[in-house]
User: Fold these one by one.
Assistant:
Number 1:
Amino acid sequence: MAVKELFKNWKTIPNLLSFLRIVMVPIMSVLFLKGETGWAVFVLFLSGLSDFLDGKIARRFNQISELGKVLDPIADKLTQIMIAVVLFLFFKSGEAVPELRAFSWVFLLFVGKEILMIVVGGIMILIGIKPIPAEIYGKVATFAFYGVMLLIVAFGPQIGAFARFWTMPTLMLQILVIVSVVLCFIALFSYVPGAYKQLKNRNKN
């Protein structure tokens, strides 16, 4: 697929929502760094809501585009990388309880997985292979990630914006993060058969 084909019929509401989600990434980063966790949770909620809406709108009003197939996962990945890095840095710091300082490296698994998918996806586009649409595994993993990270930044120990009302137990946080990691890697491997099939067909032509 030629790169110029990505921009055919690209002026759609779903693509605008994806652009906005990308813009939200640095906004959330600044809010987290400034300690405005409550506002960061709100922006993260808006990001997750727009992710849900852009797919619904694209299918309902036939606004699916090649650019959208690229922008949507990029917005997801940048958001997930940002959240994972912020949580890694926080729980790695001296402010976190010892159990979470030792556990913080798990958040880097999200980062590594998303960077790998961005690199591989970019290579696929450059060699003329269409991006693979999200499978059910990818959608479930993304939903789980947003849900778990929202819970952590809202109610996680020492970081939660609303932890004064209820603080998530450390063990519960660890279990939810590990479940989300497992789902993310299941989603990653679910893309392999489709990518291999496209590459095999390309080599035959």
Number 2:
Amino acid sequence: MSTWWNENVPAFVVVGRVNAGKSATLATLLEVDDDAVLRVSPTPGETTRVQALPVIYDGEEWIRFLDTPGFQQPLEAMREIRRLAGSREPGLEDLRVFVESRSEDFPDETRLLEPVLKGAGVLYVVDPAKPLRDEFLAEIEILRWSGRPRLALLNPQADAAPYLESWREKLGTAFNLTRTFDAHGAKYEERRKLMLALLHIEERHADRIGRVLEAMDAEWAQRREEAAEALVDFLEKALTLRSSDGIDERDEGVPARKERKRQALVEEYFQKLAEMESACLEKWLRIYRHHLIEADADPVRHRGLDLATEETWRKYGLNRWQLALAGAGVGAAAGAAFDLGVGVHSLGAGTVVGALGGGTAAFLKGGKLPELKVDFGGARLKAGEGRALVVGPPASPNFPWVLLDSMLVRYAAMLERAHGRRDRARLDAAAGASRVRELAGGPRAILQKWFTSCLKGKPDRSREPEVFRVLLVLLGGSENGGE
């Protein structure tokens, strides 16, 4: 018995011309970016055998896909099948005779037809950038003769697909359904729609395919929740992060020594921040099964978050009016948090402006650039411990929002990455536009209050359920391109 066939599991065989995108389609649909599991290569003839790719949920296989060699001699194979059929319209039995008697002359065609003979449904993948030549017409005829449930997938592999409509018209006469599926760009919703299309063409296995759809949705929701939990954890750790070191009499008497210690603490702070960020990004990559993306977490980048210019600080985080509205609900507490962040070098300015109203404080300080926040570390007296140098978050109240924005942008970039791609990439925080600015006033106020408590070094645990729900909504918006 074939190792790739199981009588008790519905199967769909993926066929098409060499390099039409068969393996890439399966890789994206099943979220496999590991060549050891499913090879995706531009080399002709890379798939030389039938390979089973099971869909497993809760330890049970519900359906399976079969990757096959591409058509190599479709015209010749079509003529031979017609010869075997004689004056009759070829059918499934003629394909069976062809497979059993002509495997030496047509090794690829007979391999890809074997699962069809056993009862597999057909996914036919084509590249609509190529003209509808006789070879393709021969493939369509051979698959039509099988009489099996058939779904045609138009997989555009270039920006232009000049023959899309002619393909769609022809496929519509020979297949149960025709769908467009970009194997190098399909997101979750497109993958779900493809699975749903299988339900429409294969009613015999409606229960099993329906179970797969339910499991896909449940798993996707669970992933989003795990990603939100990781984000809450990262933001809390990042906003409560401090680096400190003691100062002795020699340091006090030599300003250069004191400055060197401060600079060392600045380096330590950004290094720790980058490590925290990297841990969150790497967890996300594991959750969403990406092995070819690297987390872009660099302490050098953190010194300005790649946002060291006024232009990018205007681009990310909240704008000044939004900061003012968010800060208005926090009041003088925002100023106290500001003092904690900047140390004695702030000269109490945060408390003073905070007393004027949190909204005013946020408006005045919101545009402060990171390179001007060199005073976020300072010397202050810690009760019972003598003098210590402490550095903490950048002074701008926009810092938590910029930090959150940089994570949301990379989350969206990760989800846009189809598993059918095989090039390596880095999650880039410089790509995309602000996502937190689209947040409504109520959720924004929830986050602002929690941010303030974290900046004070005392995260408000009672607000975490609300914060989690807000971040869950933000991640969901990122899945749809921020719509």
Number 3:
Amino acid sequence: MILATSSYLDLLGKIEKREARAGVIGLGYVGLPLAMTLARSGFAVIGFDIDPGKIIALDAQRSYIEAVSNEALTSEVAAGRFRSTSDFTGLGACDVIIICVPTPLTKHRDPDLSYVEATSRAIAATLRTGQLVVLESTTYPGTTDDVVRPILEEGGLKSGSDFFLGFSPEREDPGNRDFDTATIPKIVAGDGEEARKLMMAFYGAAVKSVVPVSSNATAEAVKLTENIFRAVNIALVNELKTLYAAMGIDIWEVIEAAKTKPFGYMPFYPGPGLGGHCIPIDPFYLTWKSREYELPTRFIELAGEINSAMPRYVVGSLAEALDMRLGKALSRSRVLVIGLAYKKNVPDIRESPSLRLIEIIEERGGHADFHDPFVAEVPSTREHMALKGRRSVELTEETVKSYDALLVATDHDRVDYAALARWSPLIIDTRNIFARLGLSGGHIVKS
């Protein structure tokens, strides 16, 4: 107990004096903004990543994340508060180590914790007394205590006495200009009271508001609950969209009217499917874990089925519109998908339904290209390798007119929709962007 108290007080003192060195593992959409936030708060930060391309870019003070400007990166590097490396032996020099690595699903929708496990082993190789290790990657309740802790303890050090272990779910929202890492309330938890207090002190030094909860499992459940809430409600409006469309009712008009009610209603909007790392994936972490307790997760699984079916529904609407309005089969048509990113005004294509839309169009014999002002080329992806290397098509009058139809999958602001409405013979709008801009016509079809 004396050792634990000594380790705790020593680390707490370093944190309070901003003398603690932080290591952030995984410099993507979560890790890099977090590293910058910690550096601006006065901590010395080392960023770790296995991708040499990221390290090269950061060494050149060139950010690849919209939320981190080149100027902000240069400022922290110049101040000596941030550097990056792919040499994980430097983890031993860090007082606080934060894991921000991917937690994807397998093709069978089971959790893939290989990145978390490999990172935990890398930390264990240099783990020493007095370190705080934090998992931020979204996962099922119990991962921090049941998966990460045993790996870290394999060398003989014990959580709560030799080192400290906590969980704090990431809450990043790429493209959101109203909130950033420092202003989004931070959920924190720890393995024991001392770990929890260290978590509160560390994150409290860098973010505006800290919300402590009783256990790591509770904190893990908080993040899943947030994303399941969105997934289920989006599935609901997607299902209503298909029903109301069959009835000749515009779901978008319904939602606009319904949201005038000042209580008891929260607007969610339909789309061509779910994208991003969180909402399409995270609910299935809980579904997988629920099998251990022999409890079904019917709402979650049904929501997943509905949302996963949306790309095929949209392509069906496209095929019908081509046939009825142009007298042309999809199999003989050229289609330009507007927007490859999963949400507007960001370059993030993770789990983007646009990738699936392109695949389904081509499975049915059509030809599909894309335009995206934020994505010049399709990068390598685990699920869509056949699309790798395809490049964004420039939006000119001649180009647009060479396609039989446009399919708007992402409503980026950097697109001249008025011009598209003039040039294209047929537009399938999954985002209601044309109606929102006051653009109408018989050739614009909502889906």
